[in-house]
Amino acid sequence: MFSFIQEHDFNQAELYTKLQQDAQHRAPGNTGAIVTFTGLVRDFNMAGDIDGITLEHYPEMTKKALDLLVEKAVTRFSLTSAAAVHRVGRIYNNEQIVWVGCAGAHRQEAFDGACFLMDMLKQSVPLWKKEFKGNTSKWVEAKRSDDAAALKWMTKP
Amino acid sequence: MFSFIQEHDFNQAELYTKLQQDAQHRAPGNTGAIVTFTGLVRDFNMAGDIDGITLEHYPEMTKKALDLLVEKAVTRFSLTSAAAVHRVGRIYNNEQIVWVGCAGAHRQEAFDGACFLMDMLKQSVPLWKKEFKGNTSKWVEAKRSDDAAALKWMTKP
Amino acid sequence: MQITVKTFAQTRELSKTPSLHLEIEEGETVANVTSRLKNMDSNWALALEGSVLTARNQQLCDSKTVLGANDELAYFPPVTGG
Amino acid sequence: MQITVKTFAQTRELSKTPSLHLEIEEGETVANVTSRLKNMDSNWALALEGSVLTARNQQLCDSKTVLGANDELAYFPPVTGG
After folding, report:
1. Interface residue C47 vs chain B (CB under 8 A)
2. For chain A: N or C, fewer Cβ within 10 A?
């Protein structure tokens, strides 16, 4: 289990290896499934054509909130390990923003864990996106579909 | 879009990069989400403690079936790319068996595509697992839960 | 006309016949061929009992599928990859 | 006793106050502090209108939460990470 909040880019392959090693350490021979999610900046977002995004956060809270989420995912889905990494600061088109990974005994748990982490992250981790193009920028509005996605996990048994 | 059936191990990082490049080539700047799934052999399977598995397949059909699945996933979930790799032959505990990856504009499509590929693969690609321990071996029975998982995609609109 | 029959996994082990060539009549279905094979010997009878899938020319098919010259018909148990 | 108020994103820009120290009474809730801030000036009134989330000591909280000495109370819009 690990989480990072960082300005610099991350390496998907390194994070995957780190997750797999952690799962093997925590529950030797019991990982049958690993699911990863990587989020990237698209050229064309809510406001149309953009150059990239700036991510503001609440430094004292972000890391705590992310650690708590990772812990919750491991407990709720009986995972062998889970992890989340989120970038902050200025991020250009096609760059990576976020990575989550879940390792578990079976595929459904690993898939559910990774979906859960992404849905809840969009609800409870203090990060805010501003899209920029040239010298103008605009805050991204929270989506109702993200509320619905998170609510799904709160009402599920 | 690509698929491989192979005896030798695969490298998750290389496949991830290949998928991302293919997505970028097919739909420049439109990939916002990449989901990957890796399946591994667990120490303890259906028959209890094992040394590994042997995967038999129907060589003339396996590649066709896998290609067809990848195409279906891309069409059904409007993905920017998808891929699947499956090993055959003898595979020892903790080794990798299968990898699928889906790239799409949004996270839900990428998650659904990867789930779909795994669920349908377990239903329509001619691969059979035999677990071995020492000199004894035993065919793995198809699971009802896998039938249910695949059925879900057939009845969904 | 002639078809090729192939078997895999448990079906192959039980039938003791990984592959064979079979003469069929115009318009014969998978179901016809299956019942002929079942009547061949007790190995085939056992191999084709219960849930066995079929593929015609490497595509999953059902028992009503009509076979043609040089078709490849495969019998195998429910798949367990992934 | 004293608390620290922090703001982020649109809430920070609208309030024009990234951070301030505030004297509060024993037993005051988040709701009390929110209405005091809203009455301070039009920037705060605008900043705290609509859906604004609150966190006490870096944990999401609701308006009924009671504040204590040296607490950090943060106001911010719905989050948009991921």
Report:
1. no
2. C
